[in-house]
Predict the structure of ATP-binding cassette, subfamily B.
Amino acid sequence: MDTYRIFKRAIVDVFKLGKRYYVLFILQSLASTSAPFIGFIFITRIIATLNTNNMSLLPELIAQYLIILLILQIIGGFLEPLVNDEKSLFLRKMFALPNKKMLTMRYQQAESSEVREQLDIINRYMQNSQSSLPLIDVRMTAIIPDLIAIIWGTVLLLPLFSVDMSLIPDQFWWMHPLIILTIFIALIGLSVLVQLKTSKKSAESFQQMMSKLKRFNAMFLYEHALLEDVQSGKEIRLYNLTTKMVKNVESEENYIRGLLSDNYRRFRKMILPASGLFQIMNYLIYGYIGVLVLMGALPVAMIILLSNALSQMITALPSIIQQAMMMVSSPNELKDFYAFMDLPDEEVVGSLPVEKRLDNRYRFNVQNMSFAYPGSDEQVLKNISETFEVGKKYAIVGENGSGKTTFIKVLTRLYDPTEGSIKMNKIDARKYDLREYFNLFGVVFQDYHLVGFSLGQNVSVQPMFDKEIVLNNLDKVGLGNFVRKLPDHLDTHLGTEFDDSGVNVSGGQEQKLAIARSLYKDSPVMILDEPTAALDPLTEFEIYQNFDNLVKDKTAFYISHRLSSSKFCDEILVFDKGEIVQRGTHKELVDQEGKYRELWNAQAQYYQ
Ligand code: ADP
């Protein structure tokens, strides 16, 4: 994407995201920036009135002026807290963008270390007001009042065109406002060019300084973290690092001071030609207005209005250019930002709706499927071809690292197969709408995450839920009575971090909650990935016994490296180094020579 498009997109995005904030900010700027211009208008009118000796109008004029000022001040005062509130909401929304993107992008990207690194870098940029989207906001908020000043200035300069040319002697024909306006515009053009050039240089040197500062900022953050960490206090004292750290901080401060003053000197030098030109324009215009007044072509009072309007404009114009140049001088952070934000979302993958079937007949068929994690050549799953019947219970067993969890990730489409395919009811799973496809599965992963909030919400994953169904599912995993005895029942907060009246539960109870959550989802396919890791043997036995009751007529996958669990299933799939090396019932497999018997014998001692 080219730089122009990137900035256009960023500006549109920033305005869209902070719509309310910017509307209020523009209103506030209108109130504050307009005050001096309105002042010029009234002072001109007051002087004009003084000249006519018609003093009776004066009190009214002064009263009008004061009332308008008061109204502007009240508006400004009212708006200020609103603007500040909206700004903080807007900044929150802006900072949340990359993390929100992580939630909507395809999981296979969200899990990759490259994308996580990218996220880290982008979030760091987002925390710096001189880069990425925050830079656009900072510069826009500086440009808006200047733009308002320019609009006011242009409006106030209009009387120049009502100059009565008949009052100007013929030899001064070149003083016609149109000719002067043309010269004025040409001079503005020239100043803008000079300004653009110097601004570009100053923006570049600013960027250079910022990149030098980056290293020091990182060091500063590191040292701060070290000082904040109570544990590191031991080393700092024992190795006598205190003096050294103080010295470090001092020398960093000196270096940064040097950088800043160098930058300021360079900036001053660069700004000189442009501001000189603008000043010359200022004098010329003053002279022109003065001569017009002397010739009687403009009323004396106009001098104040016109000259002030002009000098406000002439200050605002270079400032806008400077801000705009500062804004466009660092496109790389924005390019990184949008490269990240443009990673494909889950929504865009597949469009076919998943047929709603009351009989839950969703049949899965894996064909020559192989898989390697993105960025790796190692095939974690190798040429797997299997068919799974509706309503059967499958155990997936195998040593750690043999590919069991990865198989589930591919089956549920968290990842796409690298080769081959998974078919659901004879159609390639990739064709289905991903959200609808996800809904086919109730999964409890080994590294399940509970989400805070109340126990009821944790099971239902929704703010509003059917209490009966939640309790019913908690009963199934043996947690119903525990929850009923709590004073706030299902509304009890999980954990005490955010709520003192919350409840801390054991690892086993957490895992049961996670199982109840997958049951509440009531999906046609249940997957339990090592669900018993945190359960004590008695509870583990309870869950096995209850397994049929838990999953009923759903198709179920039960992953475990403990073979005792596999006995409860209709069929067992044995994984070894990414391949399914055996498939059959427990009885068939223990009677066969092979991996299963090997594993069974190795583990049998624990099941005696
Ligand atoms: P199991 O569930 O049988 O213990 P996994 O499916 O978790 O095995 O892992 C299979 C292989 O894939 C292992 O070698 C593991 O290191 C690798 N692996 C797992 N997750 C990732 C990942 N996100 N990125 C790269 N490699 C991974």
In short: The pocket of adenosine-5'-diphosphate is lined by residues 111, 373, 376, 380, 398, 400-406 (CB under 6 Å). The longest helix spans residues 242-294. The chain has 20 helices and ten strands. The mean pLDDT is 84.
